[in-house]
Amino acid sequence: MIADKKTIIILVALILCLSLGIYFALTYNPNTENDINTESEKTEYITVFEKDVTTLNKVFVNLQNESFVIEKDENGEFVANENKEILLRKSSVSFLFNEIADISAQKEIEKDVKDASLYSLDKPVCVVNAIFDDGEYVIKAGGKTTEGTQFLMINNDVYLVSSSKADTFLNPLSYYREKNILEVDTQSLSYISYKYNGDVVTLEKKKDLDEWIITSPIGENADFGSINEKILSQIGNLKINKFVDDSLKDYKKYDIGENYLYLKDTASKEQKIFIGAKKDGEYFIKCQNNGCVYSCASDAISFVELKAADYTNKFVALVNVKDIKNVEIYDLTQNKNYNLAPLFEGKKETYKIDGIEVVKEKFTDAYQKVIGIMFTDFSNGKEKGEKQYTIKYNMLDNSTKTVDFYTYKDRKHIAVLDNRYSYEVLSGYLSDMIAALNKAAEK
After folding, report:
1. What is the mean pLDDT of the chain?
2. Helix orientation angle between 427-441 and 360-371, rounded to the nearest 10 degrees
3. The predicted structure's pLDDT at residue 38
4. Contact residues for 141 (Cβ-Cβ < 8 A; gap 6+)
């Protein structure tokens, strides 16, 4: 019986010990002590300079490689270097003014400092002269410490501040400038026109449709896929890369003159940008109502180097074989004619070349050379030579399409479609076509 009581006591003791162990395991937080120490080590900042930011009127910033001034004009708008054409980001400038008007330090180092060189303040990395309603205050940023802090002198008193605070005063003027140059909505453009190296290209969007037409140099339907790929997907990337010149009067230095890009959106907002020389993957640019010269990435507006033809499918006459009775080709240089005639009767297909039935593959090879002639540019107004070839499509609806080819220059011909549209084509297309027709006509 005594043994049983001892056993019970031992079991109870073990259970109590186990319970206590579980309790401490669940409630013990090894970080508690560290948290207490961390709290005690937290830096307590002290306010060393505090003014009403609305009374801050002008700021002179002198960096090691640059000096500039930002002030408020009579309307309370920020102006840099007394030049209202320098566009500023209001949020960035406001942040600078707020940081100047409210400065907290980790520690006061020395009042009325005697030897500024002890803190590298004899050669400061930045000097800010802040003009408030009640006077001028001078802020200097000196050397950094190994702990990531930096010496800051306000008038003649030295403090220790976080380096991030000091860095606020080290930004160049370009940091505060607006880099977004576009004033139109590139997602809703309705009119695009540009002039480059003498060529003017104008594109207009049809109202309420995702369809565009070329209105200059001629009237022609445009290929939306080409416009989307070459212009619409790129123009939104147009931003200022560098601020090149703010006081230039002679823009010939950057070849800024006749070349331009004009944009208009569906809300009737419009913008004209002059385009200068291309250098190191950038264009020099200038907005119409602003005298500043910038640079931008060439990719954003490289489309200005394209011809109007680049916004079409570039085929002179892409005619579906199932829409024709026959096609007649006249080679005036050899006084030779060719005739391609397909016939579709239900599921039966018959193909003839010069009246002789041929296999589909032979006909297709020849026909593709005929309709595959592509143009490199529109040629309206350009003087053409003698006519050498004619392609005449006789359609099932009894209409015709006729393309005449005239000699031109530089191994090119001028193709005239229905006596209306005129294009430049490479002469090689025509020699390839004749070679394919001769091969197909072989017995």
Report:
1. 91
2. 160
3. 40
4. 124, 125, 126, 150, 151, 152, 166, 169, 170
Which residue is it, tokens 């250098």? 279
Q: What is the DSSP letter of 219?
A: -
Question: DSSP letter at 190?
Answer: E
119 burial via Cβ count (<10 Å: 0-12, 13-18, 19+): buried
108-157 tens-digit pLDDT: 999 999 999 999 999 999 999 999 999 999 999 999 998 889 999 999 99
Write the CA distances from 25 to 163, 268, 385, integer angstroms.
Answer: 42, 71, 100
Position of tokens 């193709």? 415
Please state the rounded mean pLDDT for residues 1-8: 54
Residue type, 286: K
CATH of 321-441, one of 2.40.420, 2.60.40, 3.30.160, 3.30.1490: 3.30.1490
pLDDT, tens only, 24-46: 555 545 554 444 344 434 568 89
Q: How far apart are alpha carbons 83 and 294 in whole angstroms?
A: 15
